[in-house]
Design goal:
219 residues; alpha+beta; five-stranded mixed beta sheet; 17% helix; 29% strand; disordered N terminus
Length: 219
């Protein structure tokens, strides 16, 4: 579903959902064991946002227009020229700008939010399915983030028991990257059940999903 055609902009629609928020899982090294199959992603220190691909409109995590959206013109055009707007109308992103100066103007794609029209009579897609749809996007290297472009956030998947080796490796790699940059580009990791659906809701921007758990350096 990846194409290389620049789309004409259309009018911005009403917000479809607030960006999904993980629950607080506390420090990773003190967290209780998880069961099942989980993905571990770095927790980026940026501006959480939602992009409407056909129009290029951006909202912040509170459902308001993102005030710094003009600083992402270049990366928005890359995103809109790459993703099929008919299949992927809404994209969950982390926008890198101002907080640390690394990768300024870059959009990190965290997830895609398909509308019911996209999957029609099929069941809503899981995290693993949604992730596979985005595989043609370049995956970000934690230690080499370029400005004004688009990346897919890294993800490691494993079935967890007592020793989450892949998640531990992601945790360690994010800390090492911060040391290299000498600033806080990453705040920890976010773990997501691979069978989880994207929690579409407009009830409350602070509502959390228990299928997503964040582990930060500091609380």
């Amino acid at each position: 579903m990846i194409v290389g055609v620049t789309l004409p902009r259309i009018a911005s629609p009403a917000l479809y959902t607030y960006p999904a928020r993980p629950i607080n899982g506390g420090p990773f090294d003190k967290a209780p064991p998880k069961r099942g199959t989980w993905a571990a992603e770095p927790k980026w220190n940026g501006w959480r946002g939602l992009v409407h691909v056909p129009s290029g409109a951006m909202w912040n995590r509170h459902g308001k227009p993102l005030s710094i959206a003009p600083e992402f013109r270049e990366s928005l055009e890359i995103l809109r020229a790459t993703l099929d707007a008919e299949a992927f109308k809404w994209v969950d992103v982390e926008a890198l700008e101002r907080r640390h100066g690394i990768g300024r103007g870059t959009l990190i794609v965290l997830d895609v939010i398909p509308t019911p029209q996209a999957y029609r009579d099929q069941t809503a897609p899981t995290y693993a399915e949604r992730r596979s749809w985005l595989s043609p996007l370049p995956v970000a290297m934690l230690t080499e983030i370029k400005p004004n472009t688009v990346y897919l956030t890294p993800s490691t998947i494993e079935t967890l028991m007592d020793t989450p080796q892949a998640a531990q490796a992601m945790w360690d790699a994010a800390r090492a990257a911060n040391k290299q940059y000498k600033t806080v580009v990453f705040e920890g990791i976010v773990m997501k059940r691979t069978d989880s659906l994207y929690p579409v809701q407009l009830r409350n921007p602070e509502e959390t999903s228990p299928a997503w758990v964040k582990h930060r350096w500091h609380f």
